[in-house]
Amino acid sequence: MNIKSILFIVLQLFLGGMMIYGSISKFETPFAETQEVVDKAQKYLDEDKEHISKLILYVSGMKQTGYFWLVLGLSELIFGLLVIWKKTSLIGGLFLLPITLNILLFHIFLEPDEIGELLMSVGLFLANTLVVAYRSKSLNFLLVK
Question: Which parts of the chain span the membrane according to its record (predicted)?
């Protein structure tokens, strides 16, 4: 086993572990009432903290649907488990690409001042892209003659 293989196994474990960890928190937190969310967002708007208000409305909007936040958590859990196992890492990585892209864009546009979380989301997206690129090499014959 060479260094490259070990590096990609570590990337798979990092990506899968972070997705599983992130999914668990989506099942633990209770959903706030709609009026509480609106009042909290309005409070931040009154304090000229529009970016925090947008953040609250975005996440709470997904929770208020009653299902989307849970579907997102379940998707992160399943795809995170798929990424960890070598045989299904390509499928899990492909399905995780839009989720990690959304996480990255969320932190770029709604939390640009949180540098640590921004770097973590860049790392997640980069790890996801590298895992997909590495695992898809053996299937390139399907796309190129």
Answer: 7-24, 67-85, 90-109, 115-134
